[in-house]
Amino acid sequence: MDSSQITGLILAGGRGTRMGTVDKGLQLFRDAPMALHVLMRLSPQVGYIMINANQNIAPYEAFGVPVWQDEMQGFAGPLAGLQTGLIHCETDYLVTSPCDSPFLPKDLVERLADGLKQNNADIAVAVTGEGDTKQAHPVFCLVKASLLPHLTLYLQEGGRKFDKWYSSLAVAEVHFDDEDAFRNINTLDDLRKYETTA
User: Fold this and answer.
1) Is 121 known to sit in a ligand binding site?
2) Which positions does UniProt annotate for GTP binding (predicted)?
């Protein structure tokens, strides 16, 4: 899959309640906003990149990429961010990453794209662990841009759960060995903890 046909979307539209209602993506981590770390890791993997944010728009715009607010009102969660990304996506595919995961894999998009293609799937989702420890990370996903009507209908019917939305689609689960690459920094304690650890 040609990376120029993939748009990257950084999900920064939440309230950051677990971090004391601060904007997580703008919290400094190793001398730069967390979302900027994500941007630097994701942008070489895609043709275009944009950010979904619902507050502090100007600081995000200072990163030099388009910033879009949720089309739905009321902080409706990551699926609302995905919908917004799909509305503004001009490529065939869209890949997402949350703004609070600065360690995301440098081969995330390539491997999700391979999984999507090999399985002839609608969506590829990152997965870590096996057996009882298996965990899907649906906010790290690659989707066909043509899924916009399907997602919009789900949201209009009151759906908010990522996994329930894609349960009716052809899903490729792509296994990654490095669980640490998907850890997200949810609290100020996490921010301090990972400031100095690899």
Assistant:
1) no
2) 11-13, 24, 52, 70, 100
3-state SS class at 120: coil
Largest CA distance in the chain: 44
Entry pTM = 0.93
User: What is the 8-class DSSP label of residue 30?
Assistant: T
Residue with tokens 């057996």: 131
Question: Does residue 81 have a known ligand-binding role?
Answer: no
Nearest to 119 by CA among 154, 144, 95: 144
129 annotated to bind ligand: no
Interatomic CA distance for residues 11 and 25, integer angstroms: 9
CA pair distance 57, 55, nearest whole angstrom? 5
SS percent in the chain: helix, strand, coil, step 5: 40, 25, 35
52 is in an annotated binding site: yes
Count, residues in the chain: 198
Tens-digit pLDDT profile for residues 64-111 = 999 999 998 876 789 999 999 999 999 999 999 999 999 999 999 999
From 135, 132, 125, 118, select the one nearest 167 (Cα to Cα).
Answer: 125
